[in-house]
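Work Package 3 (structural annotation) set out to generate three-dimensional models for the target panel prioritized at the project kickoff. During this period the team completed the workflow that converts sequence records into discrete structure tokens, so that structures can be stored uniformly alongside our sequence database. As a representative example, we reproduce one entry of 601 residues exactly as it appears in the project archive.
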Amino acid sequence: MHAYNRLPSSGHSSPSTPSSPRSRSPRLRSSSNSGGGGGGSGGGRVKPSARFTSGQQPPRTLANCITGAILSVLVRRQGIFLFAPLLYIAGILFYMGTVPFDVVPIIRHRPAPGSVYRSPQLYDKLRPEMNSDNSTADAVRLFTLPSMVLVAPLNFSDFFVSISTIWKNSYRGGEWRPCINKSSGEIPESNGYLYIEANGGLNQQRTSICNAVAVAGFLNATLVIPHFHFHSIWRDPSKFGEIYDEDFFVKTLANDVRVVDKIPDYIMQRFGYNMSNVYNFKIKAWSSISYYRDTVHPKLLEEKLIRISPFANRLSFDAPPAVQRLRCLANYEALRFSNPILSLGETLVSRMKERSANNSGKYISVHLRYEEDMVAFSCCMYDGGEEEKRDMDAARERGWKGKFTKPGRVIRPGAIRINGKCPLTPLEVGLMLRGMGFDKVTSIYLASGKIYDSERHMKPLLEMFPLLQTKEMLASPEELGPFQNYSSRMAAIDYTVCLHSEVFVTTQGGNFPHFLLGHRRYLYGGHSRTIRPDKRKLALLYDNPNIGWKSFKRQMLSIRAHSDSKGIEIKRPNDSIYSFPCPDCMCRTNRTEDSRSSSVT
């Protein structure tokens, strides 16, 4: 019994047999059709295609034979397609063999925008128009004089900025004021002694000190004056009391944390008077305060003396208010530079104000990181050619032996520059400041170490700002002599002069500008008064050969305005309290309250 068939029946009850494969061939069909006397073919006029008798084929050319053979092989042997790529490559190689290599065009790819140091060429292009723009600077300064009489309306967008009016933004709820509460009660009996080793440069050590105060207070431990670890890069053997006022530090913390200058003999006797015998905690970076409570505190109670080395960045920025208060107290109140450093620093501040009489005693400070070790560590390329490459390779090997020559390590200077990680050169700093509206007679204090290839790199900056000063220019050799071979003490002098400037310009990341940001906010009502340029944007602008002075100036003014708007920022959970003191170390001052208090007085 057959299955039901829905196709029309041909008169048979069983399915029809499939046609033979031979009957599907066009050649067989044409032969059978031509031999048959199908209806309508006999007796009529013969068609042109039927001129050949049955069994006789039309003549075929050689091309038809070859084509037919290839198609037949491709159809019946489809695996030949696997060899098609090989045939294609063979054809290309055959063609290339007929072309001489000296006529093959070489395609040169243009480097990505912002990946090449072209600032000197940009300076040469913009300098004529930049210098001619200087003629408007005097008008602004004259306009600020009380006796000035306006005879014509002035277009302020064409004028250079006055330092006195650069900061226009303030917090809507009013300014901020320092408000660190100090304890008045007695400190409970100590649980033991905490000894820490502060590593790094001046401000990394400062981080360690402030965090040590916070941890000691939290654990109710007696803090031993921190020991400064000698570093192969900074090479400064200074002790705590040679950089900071040790007596003032102890006195300021007296009601919150016990601080001593040495460990008692009866404790050290247990360890053979050898600190290497004291249990040393290897604490992970950014550990939470709960780690100190759960892990460090029991050991402190057991041993009565613990050591933490190294200690930089070993405490999370996100901590309870009690811990943050101790950090604030240590950084903004207890840490004061030693009298020799403070005295010279204040002297240089006075001299800068004297040289800034044309701007009401206000000056700009710039933190420039273009020392040899900084340039070497960045792995950026500038315009010094082979000599620069030899110098940087030698400096990297001296300071970080083998770090940059490890197998498999790939250094891409262009990508580093695009990402804004390259230190700005003195020329680039000068171009930026002139674009932001600071004219030739602006007083500038340059905080820096020894500039790499200083004679060549400093020349354009001094052309743009001839009143520029450094600590070496402001101080006599006799005044600077006691600090000359101590990098941390020299950095402390720079820190003091930068702290009291009207405008602070940071050109590279690091602890120095981060601490200054917070300290300036603490002193100036919550506003950092700091210019922080977008270095990714600068890399693109400095590599643009088509930009004109007006367009360049407009971009620089935009960067300056952005820094102003970001002057007052509130600390977020993972931000550093040393850069963002609001609201942990400062309280908001309501404007209405200020106006009432001033009217009463």
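The longest strand covers residues 193-198.
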